[in-house]
Amino acid sequence: MAKGYFWQHVVLVDPFPARLEALSTTCDEMVAKALTMFMMLNRKIEDVAQGHLASKYNLRAPSSAKMKGEQIKAVKDKVEKLVKGFLFLRGENDSNGKTSNFAHPGLWAICITAFYHRSSKSFCNHPEFKAALPYLAMLLVASLVKGYLDVYCEHGYIPERSQVPLIKNKKDYFIMKTELQHVLDHPYHGPKLDDMLERWAEDGMTGFELDEGASEDEECKIVLD
Question: Can you tell which superkingdom this protein's organism belongs to (predicted)?
Fold first, then answer.
């Protein structure tokens, strides 16, 4: 139970807990355990993200690409389009033709799998996750997705044992956190995002079954149309 509440603290309060080392009331052993638990949580979400990226973002080469070099280039081209302007965050436009920010089906799939799986460590056991998926939980997933898409940009695939560097993960997280606030402050897109995250939590709580499967280019471009 204590581990579960610490994981919740990491997600909702301090996703990059470097400052734990500065807590004068915390002994070295406790700091080491806390940081270990943080890395375990991050690794868990990374594993989920890797499991869904290729299928949910269609990161496969077309059948017309026969040679390995052609296949890698085709995947890199797809990923570059997703990363530019952070298009990987967007879902389909809504019925009013408005942009859907932080709504990509890939984010939905990873969030549901990471936070609402059926086990004693599931976040669905915590009240904060029952009414709606918390903003910062969604951001943590989004920042890791961005990190792995950048790995795809570099290699055309995810090499074995790849991990997103913490410093890069943190940078992407805070870029998107700023843009998230712009969405939340918007009279149309803010309530729309809240409604969506409530639906995501409902999907998770009801056991929705998933199908298995800062240069200018790095700016997070949220559209509030």
Answer: Eukaryota
Q: Is residue 88 part of a domain?
A: yes
Range of the domain at 183: 37-206
Residue 29 lies in a domain: no
Overall pTM surpassing 0.85 (yes/no): no
Residues 44, 50, 52, CA angle at the centre, nearest 5°? 110
* Strand, coil or helix: 52: helix
Mean pLDDT of the chain: 82
Residues 6+ apart with CB under 8 A from 49: 110, 114, 141, 144, 145, 148
In a domain, 43, yes or no: yes
Rounded CA-CA distance 62/49 in Å is 22
When divided into structural domains, the chain yields a total of 1
Q: Is residue 123 domain-resident?
A: yes
What DSSP letter does each residue of 150-177 carry, written as one string?
HHHHHHSS--TT----HHHHHHHHHHHH
Output the six-digit token pair for 129.
């996750």
Q: What is the pLDDT of residues 65-109, one digit of tens each?
A: 889 899 999 999 999 999 988 999 999 999 999 999 999 999 999
* Contact yes or no for 182/175 (Cβ under 8 A): no
For the stretch 165-169, contacts whose Cβ atoms lie closer than 8 Å and that sit 24 or more positions apart, written own/partner, are 166/16, 169/16, 169/42, 169/143, 169/144
- Which pLDDT tens digit goes with each residue over 174-190? 999 999 999 999 999 99
